[in-house]
Amino acid sequence: MSVLTNNLDLFLRAFGQTLQLFAVSAVLSLVLGTLLAALRVSPVPVFRGVGTTYVTVVRNTPLTLVFVFFVFAYPLLEILKIDEYTAAVVALTLYTAAFVCEVVRSGINTVPVGQAEASRALGLTFTQMLGNVVLPQALRSVVPPMTSTMIALLKNTTVASGFAVFQAGNIRETLADQGDNVLIGLLWVALGFVILVMPLTYVQQVFEKRWSVAR
Amino acid sequence: MTAASAPPMIRVAGVDKFFGPLHVLKNVQLEVPKGQVVVVLGPSGSGKSTLCRTINRLEPIDSGVIEVDGQPLPAEGKELARLRADVGMVFQSFNLFAHKTIVENVMLAPVKVRKTPAADARKTAMELLERVGIANQADKFPAQLSGGQQQRAAIARALAMKPKVMLFDEPTSALDPEMVQEVLDVMTGLAKDGMTMLVVTHEMGFARKAADRVIFMSDGEVVEDSTPEAFFSAPKSNRAKDFLGKILTH
């Protein structure tokens, strides 16, 4: 217990950073992933190609490599300077978006084709159909896998510790430097993540319950 | 056609369509003048549903011409969406938007496509629901309604766009027998009000009562095109005689 109480400030600061990194990347990857899913079901072959290529490339790349690219390789291109924190957000967002895209697309596939036909027959454009009819129904059926993807993102934020972005993954180093018991420290970190994940699970239950009534 | 100034509402000329090796529409010719109700009959697999779906390009055709109100069907895109807005369609499986209430179903296209203010769209929607007899179900979700009520809601949804023509693709085929009549009553009412309608159906009673013309299709071809009286009392082709013999005996 003393490992935690003596370093409470460190734990709070680190998990605060983790939460911030997660929240920003979660919102951005949900938006980007949904756009990618829209590309993948678009009637325009070029758009479909872009979406498919993105998912194939990014989903098959280890997250650490994505980080390496944005922290070490990307600055050499000298396009736009970004700090390590931004690089971490970009890496997490681009990586998670590929998974979000596939989750959303699986949801789109659960919506009966008649829903799209009825929308088209009424004169809705592709974007109107997707936004008003298909996506709202698709997102209802993907709450559990989407929650899993978001939990994975929360835990993936620790990869940033290898790239000079301070968050919960760095607690161990600091404890080791101070000569504290690292094993106990890591158990507290693990408990911290369990506590952070619990609200996500709760949000999942709320959405599942609310949307099951509306059907 | 007599009056050259007024093009037919629907003109289908020399239309062919294939599903892989299957020739589902064979050189189909069909005209539906304004205000007429045309019923398409035929055995299943004769291509009548496909024909109905080609008219708003839910099924693209391989060759031939389809015109709606004198306008050839454009390729997929904004222009086609505009044309579809003027062509109402009612499906066999209703296809109401499952996540929206009945009144929201009816309002959606007027608000999004026609940019009607929501309050006006709601008012019109409620009038239409009144007309099809389900105004008291307005705030329920589609799954809470019976099949007949859902199909009447689907008709109201199509009418909300003030279409020039209505396509019905076997509107009563998915209904329990006791609900068929309530849907047919709504359709008969529409026909009396002068709506131009193309109706694919197996309801011979509706064809007799409400149709101006009957088209009989078999194996992808239009075999007969006549008045209901002529078709039911004296079909010309053997295929039509055979078909009527099968359905009218039981």
UniProtKB/TrEMBL annotation, chain A:
One of its GO terms (molecular function) is transmembrane transporter activity. One of its GO terms (biological process) is amino acid transport. The chain crosses the membrane at residues 21-41, 61-80, 87-108, 182-203. This is Amino acid ABC transporter membrane protein 1, PAAT family. NCBIfam families: HEQRo_perm_3TM. Its main location: membrane. Keywords: Amino-acid transport, Cell membrane, Membrane, Transmembrane, Transmembrane helix, Transport. It is found in: Cell membrane. Residues 15-204 form the ABC transmembrane type-1 domain. GO terms for cellular component: ATP-binding cassette (ABC) transporter complex. It is a multi-pass membrane protein. It comes from the Bacteria. PANTHER family: AMINO-ACID ABC TRANSPORTER PERMEASE PROTEIN YHDX-RELATED (PTHR30614:SF37), MEMBRANE COMPONENT OF AMINO ACID ABC TRANSPORTER (PTHR30614). Belongs to the binding-protein-dependent transport system permease family. HisMQ subfamily.
From TrEMBL, chain B:
SMART domains: AAA (SM00382). Residues 10-244 form the ABC transporter domain. Keywords: Amino-acid transport, ATP-binding, Cell membrane, Membrane, Nucleotide-binding, Transport. It catalyses: a polar amino acid(out) + ATP + H2O = a polar amino acid(in) + ADP + phosphate + H(+). SUPFAM superfamilies: P-loop containing nucleoside triphosphate hydrolases (SSF52540). GO terms for cellular component: plasma membrane. InterPro entries: AAA+_ATPase, ABC_ATPase_HisP-typ, ABC_transporter-like_ATP-bd, ABC_transporter-like_CS, MetN_ABC_transporter-like, P-loop_NTPase. Pfam families: ABC_tran. It is a peripheral membrane protein. PROSITE patterns: ABC_TRANSPORTER_1, ABC_TRANSPORTER_2. Its main location: membrane. The keyword Transferase does not apply. GO terms for molecular function: ATP binding; ATP hydrolysis activity; ATPase-coupled polar amino acid-transporter activity. Its EC number is 7.4.2.1. The keyword Ribosomal protein does not apply. It is found in: Cell membrane. Belongs to the ABC transporter superfamily. This is ABC-type polar-amino-acid transporter. It comes from Lentzea waywayandensis.
